[in-house]
Amino acid sequence: xxxxxxxxxxxxxxxxxxxxxxxxxxxxxxxxxxxxxxxxxxxxxxxxxxxxxxxxxxxxxxxxxxxxxxxxxxxxxxxxxxxxxxxxxxxxxxxxxxxxxxxxxxxxxxxxxxxxxxxxxxxxxxxxxxxxxxxxxxxxxxxxxxxxxxxxxxxxxxxxxxxxxxxxxxxxxxxxxxxxxxxxxxxxxxxxxxxxxxxxxxxxxxxxxxxxxxxxxxxxxxxxxxxxxxxxxxxxxxxxxxxxxxxxxxxxxxxxxxxxxxxxxxxxxxxxxxxxxxxxxxxxxxxxxxxxxxxxxxxxxxxxxxxxxxxxxxxxxxxxxxxxxxxxxxxxxxxxxxxxxxxxxxxxxxxxxxxxxxx
Amino acid sequence: xxxxxxxxxxxxxxxxxxxxxxxxxxxxxxxxxxxxxxxxxxxxxxxxxxxxxxxxxxxxxxxxxxxxxxxxxxxxxxxxxxxxxxxxxxxxxxxxxxxxxxxxxxxxxxxxxxxxxxxxxxxxxxxxxxxxxxxxxxxxxxxxxxxxxxxxxxxxxxxxxxxxxxxxxxxxxxxxxxxxxxxxxxxxxxxxxxxxxxxxxxxxxxxxxxxxxxxxxxxxxxxxxxxxxxxxxxxxxxxxxxxxxxxxxxxxxxxxxxxxxxxxxxxxxxxxxxxxxxxxxxxxxxxxxxxx
Amino acid sequence: xxxxxxxxxxxxxxxxxxxxxxxxxxxxxxxxxxxxxxxxxxxxxxxxxxxxxxxxxxxxxxxxxxxxxxxxxxxxxxxxxxxxxxxxxxxxxxxxxxxxxxxxxxxxxxxxxxxxxxxxxxxxxxxxxxxxxxxxxxxxxxxxxxxxxxxxxxxxxxxxxxxxxxxxxxxxxxxxxxxxxxxxxxxxxxxxxxxxxxxxxxxxxxxxxxxxxxxxxxxxxxxxxxxxxxxxxxxxxxxxxxxxxxxxxxxxxxxxxxxxxxxxxxxxxxxxxxxxxxxxxxxxxxxxxxxxxxxxxxxxxxxxxxxxxxxxxxxxxxxxxxxxxxxxxxxxxxxxxxxxxxxxxxxxxxxxxxxxxxxxxxxxxxxxxxxxxxxxxxxxxxxxxxxxxxxxxxxxxxxxxxxxxxxxxxxxxx
Lengths: 359, 292, 414
What we know:
The complex is a heterotrimer of chains A (about 350), B (about 290) and C (about 425). With about 350 residues, chain A is an all-alpha fold. Helix content of chain A is about 80%, strand content about 0%. Chain A is built from 16 helices and two strands. In chain A, helix 3 runs antiparallel to helix 4 and helix 12 packs across helix 13 (about 275-295). The longest helix of chain A has about 35 residues, at about 1-35. A two-stranded antiparallel sheet of chain B has the order 1-2. The longest helix of chain B has about 30 residues, at about 1-30.
């Protein structure tokens, strides 16, 4: 009797899971279709540029999530790699005369190289000190890029020529929209591949319990460093693309803590454990920013709104919207896959609570 | 030579303010393992309250302390009890950074909303006066601000060393579980510790408002140096933070002579990276800091 | 009132855009076209799009520029409008942010389909917005982008609505110093300037000329825009004790620097600062310390220029004070656009814009800051006045033929 009912239960769970997968695939295809078709539906430059901006957010948030999502290390200063990518590309184009996309690739590689020593220094410590280092790195770069005027243009800024000088502005936006979309697809694929690899398992072990992972033989320091470099590389790529698209760089705007905070907010809102979490977060936050701006644009209220949104996410859904919605489904649907993740997180919470109270 | 003396004096005066502010910041970390990014936003809030008090009553801005210090203490206790304790212990450190970051944004936005983005400055009758010392000039307002910082730091030291609450607080910082075992109500101690930290921001804000123009986004310029100071001093160590603040404040002031203003500011970050490479637990803190 | 309605329009258009996307999502079919509602009528108001920093770092001067624009529009409307049509301003806030200023102009031009645009405030924001306005082929008259690099970028649609670019702001002062008797002339000079294209441009413009004329530079400090503690710079200035002190300042840094210098008891014989002394708050913050402080200004309330008396009167009526430089520059930008539109006889997007641009390149426009004409890159041909605080009031002291007070050669102690 018991066996039969268990089999039935299992079958039901499997069908449920199959349905869930199908629904997920359909939603994914629909989202992809919307993203691909969107630029063809309008010729209003503002909507197109907003589309590029939101994709830029999605790229940076996904880039952030290579570090934040896999390892649980929250960097508030990822704007540093964005700015380095942007300025690297700009300087290589303007001062060294490289072709735009060669400069972009080279700049992203340089960012990855720079990330090595920073990563080594930052990853020597955990939690609080790590966050402080990431913030400090943005601030120090801001000072440096302002001061080294002969190379960076200083506070006068750096202007790049258009990579496609023949295109009219709206077509320029469309072209960059698709380039960004391509980059985003590559990044999502890479994230997905890592998520399923041994390397990804090691990283997630760091997130759940770093000491235990190390004692089990996971090379935690190396794994974290690779994730950090990868994250910086992709963020730098996003920054370089932004430089080519936007054209005018200014240290104050490229190296801003606010921008790093947006990356965190977006990833967290969507859910750092999910492949599409940062993308979803970027859509929500990107549209919200435009909305707040349009609604409360001539007061400082947009800051309050951003702050409140961040506080709500941190307090009430630190796992993000996707897990929150999933949790809602799980409550009504068959209890399948998510049990393990939750219990692992809770276990980690208990363990950490214990350890925090130890000397 | 006189430039050196002058810079040294100015550096010490600046270091005093850094020391007071960094002590509050490191205190939160000690009792709660929380990095309070909003500390400098509260600092600017207190500065605005001092300015508002001075301009609307015509009294000396220093008197605003009578209101802001208790107010900030209560807000600090409330902040800890109502918000920080809601966070999961496993992710407390990371999430508290984000939560306090959100609070900083809200404060900045509300300041802009209420007082507009216009820069404000308190007008003192003794605003540009100075007293000569060793051939250098010591500005009176800076001296008053420094005295305020020293008094507050001294008060903090007395509370930590001489009162029963201070002992409980230090015990909580050093070993929370053991403190609980000997009957200390660590939750209450932590929330009072938080209130105490915020009260230092009230004093610091008033001191700041005495000799600077204030505007809502000013807090960003304080975050970096203060964060660097508490890591160099060793997270959670109040004396460590105070010493590091003084050393770095004087270093910044002296380095300005050969390097100029911009590069002198980088001393904080250079010290931060050196600390992490050489002595991650900080130069004055105990092994507590290592794990964070 | 107009700002509220128009803002709502933009929000709803954005929501419409998002809604259109959502429509495709649910129906899985392409082509959710939005209807064009832009019917051009002869009596419709002329919509002018402006993005300004009303919040953030440049909020203070940004609001001055806003007052100038609004006053210009009200004046034109009270006198029967432009080409017989009323002017409607659509002012949006760019939060002192370069990303936003570009998005704002993009939205104003492509979504709100404004007929004309006028420039934002601060060189940093002008530089970024000039490109988007240029790529849509529109005329761009701007009141605040004085930095030299803006004009080196080669935008043919750009016109700076003020007498001179940053490097030339101190020309009259330099000439005056050169005419002083050898023994009264300052022999040494110190410079402390914010790392900002406008502030630094003006200070270094003077520095280059003075160095060439043999006046020794003792201190040359550049500080980042976020500097709040000026005691270190003041210490260096006081130690050097130069005859002439030049501050490349904006606002809060100017006041802070002067207070810090006062505290260390440095008494230069001449002191000149950019921007800060031209703001009404400057005297409030420093009191008697302002006496003798010099500043370049593009505007004089007493100058006998086109429409100036009217403008001064209007400001006095509204705010009970004299106009600030920011207000005057914005008003000037309005006058320049007005002159071009009236001469060419059109104000809409499209070919009209190029006609406006061409007209401005080959004509001189009388404004409240004097007669303005521009070179190919949009540099104006005039010179800035030199203002000095005399008996607590900002007075024009140079050039002598426009002066309202005598130049004080040796600044009283501050």
